[in-house]
């Protein structure tokens, strides 16, 4: 794995923090309710460690996957545990686990992911955009393995954020995982003057 300096890693974490804040603002507009997203943990990890950090591989979750294309190639993955899926679905007036519930969760993931990606583009001047999201329900380990298999040839580093999403006084936890290619990380750092 390439070695990044503390300054480079801090800059990547700061991009993640700003992106998350913008994602919270976008979700608030969608729900019409105050939303706050804090980022208590942001880390740059080898892929094997990122799998473990994403949660118990045997626990169920719903994942929203957004491929990113343009000046850098990457994948954004959001993982929602069942209880948090229930809370968000209820707030949107849909039944969790149904087709409408999965569609609503996919739209939430799409809004969060797009807001994050747009923040990256604005801060770095990169021309990047997400492709349509895919929503899957499975065990955390299976979701992670599927996503990582797509990026394994070009990536061995993940930016992992464990975020706490607060909507109308209810706590929802989600894991936000960004998997850029190594070239993508170098391009991000170069745009920040830290290449």
Share in helix = 40-55%
CATH architecture assignment name: 3-Layer(aba) Sandwich
What is the name of the CATH superfamily?
A: CheC-like
Beta fraction: 25-35%
The main β sheet shows up as:
7 strands, antiparallel
The CATH topology name reads Chemotaxis protein chec
- The helix count comes to 6
Shape: globular
Judged by helices, strands and strand pairing, the structural class is alpha+beta
The tally of strands reads: 7
Q: Quote the distance from N terminus to C terminus.
A: 16 Å
Helix-strand topology string:
HEHEEHHEEHEEH
Uncertain runs: none
How much is the radius of gyration in Å? 16 Å
Q: What oligomeric arrangement do these chains adopt?
A: single chain
Number of domains: 1
- The average pLDDT is 84
């Amino acid at each position: 794995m390439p070695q990044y300096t503390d300054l480079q890693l801090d800059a990547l974490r700061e991009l993640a923090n700003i992106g998350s804040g913008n994602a919270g603002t976008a979700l608030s507009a969608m729900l019409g309710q105050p939303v706050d997203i804090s980022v208590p943990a942001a880390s740059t990890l080898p892929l094997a460690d990122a799998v473990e950090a994403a949660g118990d591989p045997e626990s169920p979750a719903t994942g929203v996957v957004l491929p990113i294309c343009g000046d850098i190639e990457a994948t954004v993955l959001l993982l929602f545990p069942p209880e948090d899926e229930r809370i968000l679905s209820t707030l949107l007036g849909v039944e969790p686990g149904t087709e409408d519930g999965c569609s609503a969760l996919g739209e939430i993931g799409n809004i969060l992911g797009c807001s994050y990606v747009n923040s990256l583009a604005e801060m770095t001047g990169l021309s990047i955009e997400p492709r349509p999201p895919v929503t899957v329900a499975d065990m955390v380990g299976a979701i992670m393995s599927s996503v990582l298999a797509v990026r394994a040839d070009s990536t061995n580093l993940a930016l992992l954020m464990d975020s706490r999403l607060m909507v109308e006084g209810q706590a929802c936890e989600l894991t936000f995982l960004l998997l850029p290619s190594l070239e993508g990380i170098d391009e991000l750092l170069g745009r920040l003057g830290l290449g």
